[in-house]
Amino acid sequence: MSGPSSNAEFAPPEFPERFNMSRYFLTQRLEEGRGARKAILTESRSYTYAEIESAANRAARVLQEMGVEQEDRVLVILPDGVEFAAAWFGILKAGAVFAMVNPLVPTEDFDHYFEYTRAKVAFVDAGALDRLAPAMERARHLRHAIVVGGEAPTLHRVHCSRWADTVETAPGREICVDTHREDVAGWLFTSGSTGKPKAAVHRHVDFPYNTECYAKRVLGISESDVTLAVSKLFFGYATGVNLMFPFAAGGACALFPQRSTPEEVFAQIRRHQPTILCSVPTSIAGMLALEGKSKADLGRLRLLTSAGEALPAELYRRWFERYGIEILDGIGSAEMFHVYVSNRPGRVRLGSLGETVPGYDARVVTADGRDAAPDEIGHLWIRGESAALGYFQDRAKSWQVFRGEWCVSGDLFRRDSEGYFTYEGRADDLLKVSGIWVSPLEIEGCLLQHPAVKECCVVGAKDKDDLVKPRAFVVLQAGRKLDEALLAELRAHAKAKMAPYKYPRWIEAMDELPRGDRGKADRKTLRARPLL
């Protein structure tokens, strides 16, 4: 029987009782003499640590002048850029709590975030005001909005001002509220796949803890690293890899507001020469689909991180064959802030998510509550000092997920005798076909091995006898068409590679898979599509 896995040789980091994480990530770089080093790279110019520190101090002072008090929530609804970073650090310096939202969501989603957070102040994107302004007018608690990238609108109930007129003109003298390491620092929202997004409430100590354990011990991040992210900063995965982690090491991050198309990602790599790329499987597939690219197009890149959804083994194989650069696939969550199981440089195991990150313990627990035997499937339980305090306004769900020191995920895993974890999918995504549980990931991995398939997603659907069978949605490689010949070929391929009952009874082509704002395939939307 396999018990918790651990990293016994690793002494978890400790932090002082009086602790504000803005000092850990930013101010200490100036104290180390790194103030003149480049911290943020953009298309127009670079910004030093001293410049970010000054901008963050100004943002903190403005927040205090607007009535923000310690542990008040402040919304950040901005594209990636220097203003996002300055606002984010400024919130922490003011002793307030950051809550980050994708500026591309629809108006009704903004209504939820304004009401749920009760934010008095929000940093907002001028480019999203057509959707933001109606929600801001309805927001009961919002009093001020600081607009980045354009003119401030005149609203009835909310005072709007431009970043240039408020933050850029405020005094830049140092400010940092004296907080306790257990004080709340940030809210990380869940993906909302089963309802409205919930906030996992995190302390000041949570984010540096994972930085010490994952960024420094697994990624080996240092002051010579430059990071770049496909995911945007509102997503905790990217906030970690492309802001917190390089700042903690005295490195630099490259930020761009544009959509992360494969073409744009290659252009950013060419411009900024990153050493670490924070990516997701969808983007990896898109980069592979571009013809004529070679390792030279990746410049100084030494590794990729992948998270958010499972990385198919076939996709890794294609990537490594072309570029020879490792992808460190891992899994993290809003509940634990960031990655806690990951592959390691030099010992990536294809199809596996790797081992527990130093400072974390993991269990695989069966439905009857026992520790699973090697290669037996069960729920992943994870323990580490970055665990959230719980979900805001959801006691029942908090009790279900946070059980003492352990965080119980909805993810199914198996662990082999060497301690490597393999992801088997979400518990509610498994399909019972012919009386046997089937993982959609297995079918997806099989279909991706066919040269005509670029991406795919498998869900369950009921046949004429009301029995659940696999249904596949595929994005085909350029120039391929899903005609009867290819349909027959894909079905034969699946039957030859897997047990016959697992083959997809329906295969439908799409130009692109529907995805949530964190890049995951939207299985809920695909399940709701009527059969053709």
Give the terminus-to-terminus CA distance: 47 Å
How large is the share of residues in beta strands? 15-25%
Q: How many DSSP-defined strands?
A: 27
Kindly state the percentage of residues in helix. 25-40%
**From the alpha-carbon coordinates, what is the Rg to the nearest angstrom?**
23 Å
The side-by-side strand order for the widest beta sheet comes to 2-1-11-10-12-13-14-15-16
Poorly predicted runs: none
In total, the number of domains comes to 3
What distinguishing features does this structure have?
532 residues; alpha/beta; Rossmann fold; GMP Synthetase, Chain A, domain 3; nine-stranded mixed beta sheet; 15 helices
What would you note in describing this structure?
This protein has 532 residues and is an alpha/beta fold. The protein folds into 3 domains: 21-179, Rossmann fold (3-Layer(aba) Sandwich), CATH 3.40.50; 206-426, Rossmann fold (3-Layer(aba) Sandwich); 430-528, GMP Synthetase, Chain A, domain 3 (2-Layer Sandwich), CATH 3.30.300. The chain contains 15 helices and 27 strands. A 9-stranded mixed sheet has the order 2-1-11-10-12-13-14-15-16, sandwiched between helices. Helix 7 (206-215) packs across helix 8 (236-249). The protein is globular and about 70 Å long. The mean pLDDT is 92.
